[in-house]
Amino acid sequence: MLPVQASRKGLYMGLVAERAAAEHGDQLIILDHDLDLLPEAGRRMTFAQLAEHIDDMAARLHAAGIGRSEHVAIHKSNGFDINILSCAVSRIGAVPVQLSPALDAESVVALLRRLGRPYLITDTAKLDGPFADVPLDEITSEVIIVAGSRPGTVSLVDLAGAPRQEPVVPHPDLPALMTHTSGTTGLPKLVVHSARTLHGRYRPQAKLFDMIRERETVALHVSYVHSRMPLALAVLLPRGNRMVVMNDATPEKAARLWAETRPGFIESHPNSFMEWEALVDHPLKPLANVKYFSTTFDAIHPSTMHKLLHATERSSPIFYQIYGQSETGPLVGRAFTRETALSADGRCQGYAFPGDTKFKLVSRNGKEVTRDNPGYIDVQAAGRALGYFGERERYDAQVHGGWWRGMDLGYRTEEGCLHLLDREVDTIPGIHSTLEIEDTVLSRLEELTELVVVPGPDEEPVPVLCTRDDLPLDRERWKAATTEWPQLAEPVQMKLTELPRTATMKVQRIELAARLRRRAVGRAS
């Protein structure tokens, strides 16, 4: 395999839209939501208008006192304006710190303290809600709100007309962006990216789009605070792809939006694709024009890929599954077709990207790494982040001789394919792979919309499931579908909205297990 080489270029978020607008200025971005930052902008903007908004907000932020290398936390209600603000912060040489709107106030305060009095961009909904009793003046340099007015804050509305600034292009190895880990194991870690590492993440994603000859309309439903979103803009804007950017993954709303915009490429989280299985037989045929599906956030169930691939009327559609981590970006990938999706092993994540990533398996016990004795997945990637802000030792503990150990467990097949079984922290005694069980049972029971196996109060494997329309589970069908796992405890049924999730819609397994323990204690008392 080709050696992994660091990027010779940097990816500068504040310049992407401006450069793309020079060639594709009239191309459209279609939104399914209004922007708190720019309510007058409406739900359609051209690439040229996007570039103008970024330049305008960069001027206003500079006028608010933000200078080069300053940390600027962005924590506001969900919307594409998070990315407009992040690009604007980058454009004046400061470091955007993208904090999920879904983070609780306690976690946000802890991260703000870790940053050491950063600037904070937020909105009145956050100030009047979760931050109502938080002494923000003690932990931030300044609070900037996107609209309206509140005592002790600076409103971007009042800074309209601020003098435009020349864009700043820092050294490619300086911090350029901070995102955070998913938070599935406690307080999220702040992941530090540079322009060079961002370009390292860009490379394999750009190669994927280079293989797509058609200029498809791309529908995106991904977390605005994940590093994937600025990279999606960096890939799509220069290529002139029309974009549909979505806040709302509700199947009926997605159906109406896609029936109108007819995307040829859809990218989202695996759990959103599971929800969209309901659109397979929708009378509006919202999936009819989709040629490509893509997910980069987690493993996806084969049955989901199979259903969606058969819902499109395009010839030879493809489902791209890409496995990666917050710290590394995309690592391995694989394409599935109508013929291969359903029969695929759901644990198969794919192959490394030559020249950009590589992986190896490391034994945990000195024995050969196999399916029955999975090992640590160690990786090298051109997009590996610089570190965790304020937690250098924690980051360094996962670096082993130049390889990054993300604490996922798996094995390599004879064909060189990486198979992911579980995260080490999610393993349950007596269970080979919780993910494997979930894949298999979901393919057998069409009525399930989610299934997660977590340790119960006594470390027993407890299946937590959701059903379509929240109908009661058919216990006889459940028994027939799970007969080879007699060690499973009685299933616990929940509504899909009750499951704790991260910003990228992953189920927070540790939190879910904790809730089961608290429930058991409550019953006992």
TrEMBL record:
PROSITE patterns cross-referenced by the UniProt entry: AMP_BINDING
InterPro entries, per database record: AMP-binding_CS, AMP-dep_synth/lig_dom, ANL_N_sf, ATP-dep_AMP-bd_enzyme
Protein origin, superkingdom: Bacteria
Domain AMP-dependent synthetase/ligase: 18-389
TM regions (residue ranges): none
Cited Gene3D superfamilies: N-terminal domain of ligase-like
Signal sequence range: none
UniProt cross-references to Pfam families, sorted A to Z: AMP-binding
Name used for this protein in its record: AMP-binding protein
